[in-house]
């Protein structure tokens, strides 16, 4: 269901389980992923993380940089025909945009997924909660030391 975007009631034909069992299995899978990865990877940076990110950025020649934000277009193979124009990227293929901030160790500490492929990077950043949180005064925690 997650990998191919198939509805739960179609799973019974290839896996031979019922719709309710497929839905329950997906819920359990998602809960397990959260349990294993939430505390380390599926969270915003805390004060120690911010200090570490700033220190590493400084050592690599990027002072005051927490990470690099980028947008990626994922092809939406099963995009409904009625939505295909809205989600069409410049290649003519329907896409969904993933905006993420990652660091060199592959820790993705911010992700915003689901905007239509017809948006450009500026539109995505405008819609992202990363910058709206800053505009609303919700910022990352930072511990500073003065020497």
Automatic annotation (TrEMBL):
InterPro entries: Harbinger_derived_prot. It comes from Dipteronia dyeriana. This is Uncharacterized protein.
């Amino acid at each position: 269901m997650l990998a191919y975007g198939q509805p739960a009631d179609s799973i019974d034909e290839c896996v031979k389980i019922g719709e309710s069992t497929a839905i329950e299995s997906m819920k359990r899978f998602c809960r397990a992923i959260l349990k294993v990865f939430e505390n380390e990877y599926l969270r915003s940076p805390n004060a120690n993380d911010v200090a570490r990110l700033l220190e590493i950025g400084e050592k690599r020649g990027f002072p005051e940089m927490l990470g690099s934000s980028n947008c990626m277009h994922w092809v939406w193979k099963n995009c409904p025909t009625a939505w295909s124009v809205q989600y069409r990227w410049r290649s003519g293929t329907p896409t969904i945009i993933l905006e993420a901030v990652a660091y060199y160790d592959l820790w993705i500490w911010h992700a915003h997924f689901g905007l239509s492929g017809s948006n450009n990077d500026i539109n995505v950043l405008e819609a992202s909660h990363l910058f709206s949180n800053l505009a609303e005064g919700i910022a990352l925690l930072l511990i500073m030391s003065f020497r």
